[in-house]
Amino acid sequence: MDNSVTKTGKTVEEATQAALEELGVSSDMADVEVISEGSDGFLGVGKKDAEVKVTVKEASSEESEDDDDTYYGDDENYEGDAVTEAEDAAVNFVAEVLSGIGIHGNLDSYREDDAIYISVTGSECGSVIGRHGETLDAISYMTNLIANKHSEERVHVHLDVGGYRKHRERIVINLADKAVSKCLRSGRDVVMEPMSPADRRIVHFHLADVQGITTHSEGVEPRRCVVVSLDNK
């Protein structure tokens, strides 16, 4: 997975947000290098977009005092052990959160490349999801922080509760398809409803290969939304 991306936008903030969404991280988990702050030009002539390079921070880890003398054996096995430790830490954290709010659920997890998938099922999961998945997003963010503190390689934790993610993904994809149809029919930009960063990533990814269509995000959280436009390039 790429650890950095360069993006442009009308402002530094817009370009930075676009890069964070593509990388799938929050601002606290990345370093931002402003390549150009952009320019309004003169009477609109010579206007230039802002450009930034956003790089994911390396997960911090405590180094042993005798680091140079430590032998880990086969690199592949060592990486596997590191991911296993991250998975255990993530699962334990989610279990503690559930226990702390009095929720009894079943946890299942598995690894795939540099990703960890955790699924929570149970009859009392609604409060873990929250309105439009806001609580789930917050727990997912914290779980990713915990997991990456236990891994030298960056890992991404996908947390789903009661199948909410898959259900929400179907809804968001349907909304994206309708926005594309409306844009092509009217020839005008279509501003979608405000969405969470996770939902916006679904839209950007789903429409990335649609011919003649481009997407970008506008606005400020929590009212930030995706704009679907004709690609006139």
Outline of the structure:
The protein has helices spanning 12-23, 75-100, 126-129, 134-149, 164-186, 197-207; strands at 4-9, 30-36, 50-56, 106-112, 115-121, 156-161, 190-191, 213-218, 225-230.
Question: Can you tell me about this structure?
Answer:
- This protein is α+β, with helices and mostly antiparallel strands and 233 residues long.
- It folds into 3 domains: 1-57; 76-162, 2-Layer Sandwich (GMP Synthetase, Chain A, domain 3); 165-233, R3H-like domain (Ribosomal Protein S8, Chain: A, domain 1, 2-Layer Sandwich).
- Helices cover 39% and strands 23% of the residues.
- It is built from 6 helices and 9 strands, in the order E-H-E-E-H-E-E-H-H-E-H-E-H-E-E.
- It has helices at 12-23, 75-100, 126-129, 134-149, 164-186, 197-207; strands at residues 4-9, 30-36, 50-56, 106-112, 115-121, 156-161, 190-191, 213-218, 225-230.
- The strands form 3 sheets. The chain has a 3-stranded antiparallel sheet with strand order 1-3-2, covered by helices on one side. A 3-stranded mixed sheet has the order 4-5-6, with helices on both faces.
- Strand 8 (213-218) and strand 9 form a beta hairpin.
- Helix 2 (75-100) packs antiparallel against helix 4 and helix 5 (164-186) packs across helix 6.
- Mean pLDDT is 80; it is low at 60-79.
What is the element layout, followed by pairings?
Elements lengths: L3 E6 L2 H12 L6 E7 L13 E7 L18 H26 L5 E7 L2 E7 L4 H4 L4 H16 L6 E6 L2 H23 L3 E2 L5 H11 L5 E6 L6 E6 L3
Parallel strand pairs: 5-6
Antiparallel strand pairs: 1-3, 2-3, 4-5, 7-9, 8-9
Helix pairs in contact: 2-4, 5-6
